[in-house]
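Schema walkthrough. Field components (list of strings):
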Amino acid sequence: MSTNEITVTAEKGTSLWEDAWIKLRKNRLALIGLGLLLSLCVISLLTPWIAPYGYEEQNLLMGATPPSAEHWLGTDIFGRDMLTRIMWGGRVSLMVGFIATAVALAIGVIYGAVAGYIGGRVDMVMMRLVDILYALPFMIFIILLMVVFGRNLLLLFFAIGAVEWLTMARIVRGQVMSLRKQEFVEAAHSLGLSQWIIIRRHIIPNTLGPVIVYTTLTIPSVMLLEAFLSFLGLGIQPPQSSWGLLINYGVETMEEYPWLLIFPGVALSLTLFALNFLGDGLRDALDPRTSKD
Amino acid sequence: MFKFALGRLLQAIPVLLVVITMTFMLVHSAPGGPFSADKAVPEEVLKALEAQYNLDQPLWQQYLSYLGDVVQGDMGPSFKYPGRNVNELIMSGLSTTAELGFYAMLVAIFIGVIAGVTASMRPNTMQDYVPMTAAMIGICMPSFLLGPLLVLVFGIHLEWLPVSGWNEIPGDKIMPAITLGTGYAAYIARLSRGGMLEVLSQDYIRTARAKGLSEFLIISKHALRGGLIPVVAFLGPAFAGLLGGSFVVETIFQIPGLGRFYVQAAFNRDYTMILGTTVFFATLIILFNLLSDMLAIWLNPKLRQQVRGDS
Amino acid sequence: MKQQFSASIFSLISAIALSLILTGCGSSESNVESGNRTGILHWGNGTEPQSLDPHIATGVPEHHVIVSLMEGLVHKDRETLAPVPGVAQSWTVSDDGRVYTFKLRDDARWSNGDVHNAYDYVWSWSRALQPALGNLYAYMYFPIVNAHEFYKGELTDFEQVGVKALDDLTLQVTLRNPTPFFLQLLDHYSMYPVHQATIEKFGRADERGTRWTYQGNYVGNGPFKLKSWEINRAIVVERNTYFHSNDDVKLNGIVFYPTENSTTEERMFRAGQLHYTNDVPIDKVQTYRDANNPALKVVPYLGTYFYRVNIREPHLQDKRVRRALAMTIDREQLTEHVLKAGQIPAYAMTPPNTRGYYPPVNLSFDPEAARQLMADAGYPNGEGFPATEILYNTNEGHRKVAVAIQQMWREHLNIEVKLLNQEWKVYLDSESSGDYQISRAGWIGDYVDPNNFLDMFLCDGGNNRTGWCNKEYDRLILDVAPTAKTHEERLAVFAQAEQMLMDDLPVLPIYTYTTKHLVHPSLKNISNNIMDMQRYSEIYLEGAED
Amino acid sequence: MAALLDVKNLKVHFHTRNGVIKAVDDVSFSVNAGETLAIVGESGSGKSVTCYSLLDLLPKPPAKIEGGTAMFDGEDLLNCSADRMRHFRGNDIAMIFQDPMTSLNPNLTVGEQLVEPLIYHPDKARRQDRAAAKLRAIDLLDEVGILDSERRFDSYPHEFSGGMRQRVMIAMALINEPRLLICDEPTTALDVTIQAQILGLIKELQQSRDVAVIFISHDLGVVAGIADKILVMCNGVAMESGKTDNIFYKTKNDYTKRLLNAIPGGPKTMKNRAQARNPLVEVKNIRTWFKDYSGSKTIIVKAVDDISLTIKRGEILGLVGESGSGKSTLGRSILQLVPTQEGTVTFDGTDLGSLSPRQLVPWRRRMQMIFQDPYASLNPRMTVFETLAEPLLYHGIADKSAVTEQVQALMDDVGLARAHMRKYPHEFSGGQRQRIAIGRAIATKPELIIADEPVSALDVTIQAQILDLILGLVERHNLTMMFISHDLSVVRYISDRVMVMHHGVLVEQGKTETLWAKPKKAYTKNLLKAIPIADPRLERARN
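Field assembly_structure (string):
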């Protein structure tokens, strides 16, 4: 049946975000995801004040004890409280996840949109550049970055963003290629709008759906990539930690001290599910074409 | 089709050239040479070694002679394995990695498509949520975690499958393939669910239903072909990524594949080996993207007929 | 609707597929079982060997394979490490300790059946000293008269080097100085002979990386011969019937597996795919201990784990600071609770009982005194102590040690030390160019002698890297020790030198290594020596016990 | 005699998160064998839902049949098992859908799709093998007028034109000799000449096979000629039903009357405001060719081939042509939205082709376009305000402080309530959206507007309103307009002068009424003849 047979007329106008919020509020899963994510963020923000122990506080005599009343999530081999370490790790992981993804998002969306919109030879050259970057040896690239620029968290964001934007650019480009044939883009063109304004106002906002979905998939992989880079020496250094690193260490001892793997794993999975539910909800909510039913 | 492929291959030449050039510069500017070791290497030995591999020449000269060799298909000798050249090392790893990638892809497609199609048939019901939640877990489950988990359960506790090796003990390919394929299976599940949902809302599905066809026929004959186009488009990059990303799995399961060579080469600053594998992977990425595009064309009768004329 | 039906079809298909995948194969005979039956040893060998050319190879995995394929003039007893006859049946040493005369076995053969005699050594050693070959272990030859000069190119005539074949079965070696550990060096693979005809068949004598080490080409003189070498998969050696003591060799072959990931290796062992592992993951040692599992073998190792201190750094120039740092590392806690594999706390560079040598100890865990030293140096309660970093290469064990030490220094000295891990080659680059403050290091002895640990810290020693230089120390090591009349006198000189080193502490010794292996009960005659050397010709497999 | 299909008190509700929508509310009707029932209504009237519910083709959820019976040959369709339903689908009851472009599976040959109902017949006894089915399918293809049917059997849908595809659909529907044929707007997506052919075909087949037909349409003109009975629906409720002549000539219901009145017919009532001298636009020998790279050989599509025309100031020039005639491309070529190969477009004395894109910007302000699809031509993520304010701000017509006022004025102008300013396009109906699009076009106070099928996607009552809005605006703002349409009645109603395009070339042009009265070219004559007339007696007389 054709969709326009059911038209619900809203009485009062709503902004895109208001509208999205109204729709989001009706999506229970998305709300749960949002709530979960917010509480994780709040916990992370408050960690310095609410963490039960110091994240570097060792007690070698209490090494690798299972969960107990004293240490709810047990201790690692240095006798450090796992709950505290997961809380501190969350600060790093969430920050890396969000910021690095935002970097990838910004570069990927703009690049993909420009390539897809202009098309033709420009598109071909831009996409071949993406091919080239895909092919470069990532590890050598990271090692070089580390050596040339020293180490800091900013560099970590840069390195991760540098990898993750490629796929984003491809997805956005595909979207834009189909969008630019739409009549409203032609209408904007006939109004005499400049190409940049058309890309910014008419093209990019309409790629939100797939971009949001891909973003929710990117954040977890960024968190795991962070662990790998920290392993190589780029990024955070012990005694600081992140979920990715905790999981990495946890895998090594998963038979002996399973709680060292399970709890950070649960933290990461919770974030993932929250993100996924929220992402799917947001995609639907932000699409003005779906009626508010 | 031929013309299309040829055009794309011609485009690949400058891409590869830039990849070689940039990689060459990258590896030569990375700290630590191929011969540095924890025991100090005497100056005279270092000189002798560098002379053996032409590393004492100016960089541009090394670059040009490397380029000359590559054009003739010779990727040079390996620094790490004296006496072996990069070509034979890549070839020895390639067959293994390709086989691993192939099985992983089979696993990925098989599980992914079934899960995605099942989910798409009844969106927003348990039949949708269960496989899609599993897919979510699959996407996020890093192989460095999944691999050991599988090994502990099926290799050590149940003793059903060998915990490592390749082509030595029957069944030693199962766990690596699953470990490597799961992430992609999950991704394919999402893609095929999306594609199927799109197709199932098409008018021609309604037509098929109005004709009185069974639901099984509608899915398998009418919907699957269109619904899997996003999956096909994903296959090319995925297969290339699979080959490149097989390192972790190869390490967990002691598989003599290309991924391990690549990472070892990077850690060892085996310049020629890094360059060789990079060029090789770049070629693969280009080839597989091309193949997947060609498959997408072939699946679409309209495009297929347009290009049939000259193939 | 019909959807129910097709859904069930799909789930049916997937269920069938899954069960096919999972039950596709039952468990068959494991490597260990089949190995015990056929006399094939399955050996976890660490990383993939880079070269099997004894004059090019470096590293322990290479060592394992090469000693199965080759034999030196002399080798070591597998328990006492005392020299025992190899290709040389017997030897005499001149009174001044400088001339060694070796009598070779008359039944020595190459693995292709060729006669193996004293001339092989002259040619092989001349090859090993070709500068172009890039032999990193060339210094093993330097006790020999004129060997260093020849290596540096100052001499071109090998005749003048102190190696001579007096006849087919007699080899005479003349040393620069009496070198008590010379016989040990002969068991190092860099001094093994190679088969001239084979090498020349595949290239020049000094050509690096010819194909003579390939399967099918390799000719050795050891108990086994190379059957196949598939990179990253396995190296297989089989019985060499031309070996002079072939009748005494019990194994029919060995499969060396590259097992760079010790976690995987441990699982392979548990699944019966290996007889012997190269290593045991740190966290598993405790598990095996707790279970009283006899497979676990932990043996002290001739190696020291230590931190280099870059004394070119202004605040680390003060030896009071270095002493304070050294005194606040709680080595007992570290080895007991963090490393947990029987490592021995080290308070000096040379491991104890290195050929009867016990290093002087004037270092202890004493936070009180350390704080006083820091205060004396101008950092009361750690105040004003400049930012300092510990550099280590990416590795789980190094990380653990660094994290623990970081916390100890914070606790006892109230100083903040940062950790910095770098990828291996970057780390090497940083360390050798002096671009670090404190850097983790390890040294494994090539031969059992204090000299091997102490000559590292000569002023121009390539492995010194700390900036520490003491002329008197150099004199003791280079001039006094080699001319010592007796073993005791020599050890006293080393003790004196080590005392100087430990007074200044350009290095902070942490612990003495142990080797950790998992050994299948059917594997017999495994040695427990401090060099972790195994004699494959003596190892045998007892029938499966299960 | 009992009716073949007897639907009583059908109620279909959609359960959405915002509550229940009564898509079909207590509708009853019946059809006899050999009879044609037309269900007429505008979008949202529930006419399609009614028919889909008969064959259980509605997505459930959200749809739910709340009540009623549909007795087909003594069996209740609304209350039978899924398995039983398959016996009806495609066998006793067949359906033809609106859009032949999307209703055929593009991945399968038409032959394959044709034989499916035969070879997968749910009744095993009636199943046929592939060879027999193929023969039958080819016969049917012949019957529905597909030439070279044996070869075409193995063609893919994209190799057929829209009309041919609809013929295939009809053949597919007939392959199991159904007793009831449901046609859901089968001609709406087709050109007027094709529409006439398809209507004729359906009528002919119905008579030869004595099947019952339910014909769904929004266009009373279309059904006038073929329906025996008509059911008029609005918002899910049956407004009026009865014999065709009664509906047309003895209309009782107000809604039906409005529907009938809204059908454009007759000449333009407004005076011709064209100024003879100094034309606004002069097009000379323009050629717009596209290269089609997708094939093995580059095919040159001559979308516009050597056309010259002038548009006088103040006139409304109608441009008529069927799909693929190049009329839209011509409009876009004049506005410099597509690159042209040859020829000149002079706007108010300036050759637009000689200007760079940057130089063209001030000219763009003076000429605007209204697009066909009000759903696609508005950015779904911009509010009315943003859409209308964008050209005002960009061209500096209004500054930030005055823009709200100006947007409100524009909304007044196109008949949109000011209160809707912050709403998104999806919250509007099609007609309202087209008002927004028109508002955007006149925002820059252009002199020339090219309207590309601005009403063809709209319901007939809305269409009348929009046409009147356009006429009013032309007068108030002294606009010059080129009005592109495939619908001749609409063009006649609005244009002063008409041009007919076919295959990229101009066939004929002239004053509207002159052309209607005395078309010179055969093509034009055919076009005019194919227009359905909303008058059953006239229609019957024509055939």
